[in-house]
Amino acid sequence: MRNLTAERTCVVAKLSDVGQSTLPLQEQMRPLMNAAPYLVLDVDGIQFTSMMLGEIVNVYMAFQEQWGSRPNGMALIRATELTRQVLRLAKLGDKIPMFDDLEQAWRSFGSSPRAQARA
């Protein structure tokens, strides 16, 4: 019998499903961030405020701290045009790329220059 292996694993979290909590998003996401080196945040239906932007940056920084020395990636999917503009203005688009759907995000993890450079 052969052992199964996974070359890449990914966690997808739909932020609109995150319940009301007094914990920062980073703390709510920690178990998911620790589970796999690729993280996709589905931000469909989320209104980005400066507070939410800070929360996403904190998640990104904690994720990089966890996986930074190994191939990894984090992406947002289904962001509104306004959210995309906010992230571009904050110069976060190169660190946290945005895609229309999960398939595009998944493909980017296998072909991103960061992933190839770290592989």
Structure description:
- With 119 residues, this protein is an alpha/beta fold.
- The protein has a single domain, classed as STAS domain (Transcription Regulator spoIIAA).
- The protein contains five helices and four strands.
- Strands 1-2-3-4 form a four-stranded parallel sheet.
- Helix 1 links the parallel strand 1 and strand 2.
- Helix 1 runs parallel beside helix 2.
- It is globular, with a radius of gyration of 14 Å.
Secondary structure blueprint with pairings:
Layout: E1 10-14, H1 25-35, E2 38-42, H2 50-67, E3 73-77, H3 81-89, E4 98-99, H4 102-111, H5 113-118
Parallel strand pairs: 1-2, 2-3, 3-4
Helix pairs in contact: 1-2
Structure, briefly:
The chain is an alpha/beta fold and 119 residues long. It has a single domain, classed as 2-Layer Sandwich (Transcription Regulator spoIIAA), CATH 3.30.750. The chain has 5 helices and 4 strands.
**Principal-axis shape:** globular
Give the amount of beta strand, in percent.
Answer: 5-15%
Overall mean pLDDT stands at 85
Rounded radius of gyration (Å): 14 Å
**Would you tell me which CATH topology applies?**
Transcription Regulator spoIIAA
Report the major sheet.
4 strands, parallel
Give the N-to-C terminal Cα separation. Answer: 29 Å
State the order of secondary-structure elements, H for helix, E for strand.
Answer: EHEHEHEHH
In the residues, how many domains can be counted? 1
The CATH class = Alpha Beta
